Amino acid sequence: xxxxxxxxxxxxxxxxxxxxxxxxxxxxxxxxxxxxxxxxxxxxxxxxxxxxxxxxxxxxxxxxxxxxxxxxxxxxxxxxxxxxxxxxxxxxxxxxxxxxxxxxxxxxxxxxxxxxxxxxxxxxxxxxxxxxxxxxxxxxxxxxxxxxxxxxxxxxxxxxxxxxxxxxxxxxxxxxxxxxxxxxxxxxxxxxxxxxxxxxxxxxxxxxxxxxxxxxxxxxxxxxxxxxxxxxxxxxxxxxxxxxxxxxxxxxxx
Length: 254
Hints:
Elements: E1 13-18, H1 27-36, E2 46-47, E3 55-56, E4 61-67, E5 82-88, H2 97-100, E6 107-109, E7 116-118, H3 128-132, E8 139-141, E9 146-148, H4 154-157, H5 170-174, E10 180-184, H6 191-199, E11 215-217, H7 233-252
Parallel strand pairs: 1-11
Antiparallel strand pairs: 1-10, 2-3, 4-5, 6-7, 8-9
């Protein structure tokens, strides 16, 4: 079985995902597919994509759930619910079971930044890592007979041919609501670490002890409709125009 390399730098690169602002548009999933189809784990194959039984490799998947008052999202109205969109990909755990069960050393955790990767030349497609991962983050490629997963766009974040502002995972670059954040979660002074502290970011399934590096920011509690005065038509139009201009400005500034 494979040992986990000791982190030599203290860096823990990962993602912080804001469940309050994610709108479930799947832009992250599509951008991930597009970039990685020519990247480190390429190709990401698809079988019968428009047929009755599509089968393919996706590093990022987005699920949608309906949350009600018992989750703290519905206010005082017993019938109030909201949709929560939950992006799911590899969490680059500090104690990844997918690494320790690998019989060939194909699955490993990098000592310099904590990113969990797969060496396809060593992978025998036994699927032990996918069975060990409680987050469902491993993908089996039936064409190559090997396992594949999110690389945190390692071939992009260290690419010196790209402008510094673009050395981020593809999913972070395209998110229209800025629900995804990338950085060093091993540095308490980093922007992502401060965001986790300010918003009480959480681990996924913390009781399992895998210590995922990626964090989720929980949805904020919504105010009851009675507490929010209705906007006048002019105010609604002005607010919508302001938000649209801010989004366009952020898009063009990248």
